[in-house]
Description:
Catalytic activity: (6R)-NADHX = (6S)-NADHX; (6S)-NADPHX + ADP = AMP + phosphate + NADPH + H(+); (6S)-NADHX + ADP = AMP + phosphate + NADH + H(+); (6R)-NADPHX = (6S)-NADPHX
Largest sheet: 12 strands, mixed
Domain YjeF C-terminal: 317-593
Oligomer: single chain
Radius of gyration: 26 Å
Number of helices: 22
Family: In the N-terminal section; belongs to the NnrE/AIBP family. In the C-terminal section; belongs to the NnrD/CARKD family.
Cofactor: K(+); Mg(2+)
Number of domains: 2
Binding site for (6S)-NADPHX: 144-148, 220-226, 249, 352, 416, 467, 534
Amino acid sequence: xxxxxxRAQMRAYDKHAIHQCHVPGVVLMENAGRGAADVISAxxxxxTAGQPGAAALPGHAARPAPPPPAPGQAPASAxxxxxxxxxxxxxxxxxxxxxxxxxxxxxxxxARARAFPVRHVPSPGQPATYPLHARVVVVAGAGNNGGxxxxxxxxxxxxxxxxxxxLAAPSxxxxxxxxxxxxxxxxxxxxxxELPPGAPLAPLEAALAEADLVVDALFGxxxxxxxxxxxxxxxxxxxxxTCLCIALDVPSGLDADSGAPLGAAVQADETVTFGHLKIGLxxxxxxxxxxxxHVVDLGVPDGPxxxxxxxxxxxxxxxxxxxxxxxxxxxxxxxxxxxxLVVAGSSGKLGAALLTARAAMRSGAGLVTICTWADxxxxxxxxxxxxxxxxIDPARLxxxxxxxxxxxxAVAIGPxxxxxxxxxxxxxxxxxxxDGRKVVDADALTHFVxxxxxxxxARGSLILTPHSGELGRLLGRSSRAVEExxxxxxREAVALTRAIVVLKGARTVIALPDGRMFICMAGNxxxxxxxSGDVLAGMIAALLCSMEPSAAASAGVLIxxxxxxxxxxxxxxxxxxxxxxxxxxxxxxxAALAAxxxxxxx
Length: 602
């Protein structure tokens, strides 16, 4: 299990460790800062070695320190955006460092625009060859996040880096555990410059112009108000810098729960988060601001504390999904393998039905039938081979639907089905009246705009698969409002409908009626292609034939996302994927996951 915590849960985690487990707060701060220094050290060594996307992790050979620069040459410490290796290679869109190692302002902006993927990796643990060759600026606040920054600064100073801390507050504002680490850093010879409100920011701008790396230690997870004024100006200077930016815990200005920026927010290239992932890092906007995410532990056993404070969500793991994919009995026949009905398609929209049905076949269903309107059925029949078709007679709508539903194990309904009155009557009959397992997508969801609570009265079980626009229409708000609080929106939808809700998009969220949530961290922008959601609906319907609904939703989402990652790994592109190609990759992914193999390594 990879737990994800909310702001309140992480605060309770620290409090329980300090007061019930008697781990001093200054020890937790030391462990957090040292873990971050380890990650930063690995990034520095990878950059000085000129290997984008690589780091000196355990098991990697140590690299010699670079020689001192010749007169007139750029220092060997000049850095380029990096990520620790986590099995997926360089992050999407990474580009090799230029000969002198330092990127231009234009390159920096382009790199940050590409810094969307999030990687979950453990702390590597002192992975670099010392001394470090880098100029590091730490921008610290007066709170605990600033205290973490002072620990990082001390460790990097001890490892040979050239470090300067800018404190965005008067020193007397630093108290408690943060004060201890503030004083330790200074008394060990660390350079500190105060930038209280009203102070000019030119010294910070000058330092960043010469720095290889800046550490954002202004605000952590406790921030719950917009950043304005002087501190917003400080963040503006950080974001304008061309050096690599690494945030501690969360990028300053990011709401740790919703993932929305609170006024000004730091755009980081990398984020080192402490103890556990924070839920706000796993939204599309949170992921964009955080860049690559590295999780370092706090030096305390998790079990007892998590049992007390709980967690708000879990990250979907390939190992878990692989355990759902059991081998079939040798004697299985097509009806046992899965009998799926796809209620979809209409004149001019037959492609959606075909994509859904073929995805169900590729996901293991033994028999798939497309149920569509009588006026569209002849055109459908001329385009299918392995699939069967059946027609809906508008004059005998309920009777023809009941005949099509007989004997089915699961139904996918909605893609391209239409939004007229006859379609609404058909959707109501199937979604609300049929006592079976249903995946409700696209047009079928739209028929419940203005009456989402009707879904709570449905017989059987429902899996709803909206994107943010469809969910917004169900909840009576804009797509943007949903994206600003994806977790709150999906919880509201579950409460209204009593269904499993799959909120599609970057970092797809699966929310269950029992309160559990799962987040998919796989996938990439190549999946933003017409018909991709239709394919997912068919995949989940097929998996419903052999799994419990929550498992089928989780497996379908992860396999669908991994298909996008495998395609990108093979093509090197983040665009041009066809929805039909997603389905073609599914059998190989199922085989790899069932065997316990990493699909991306095959």
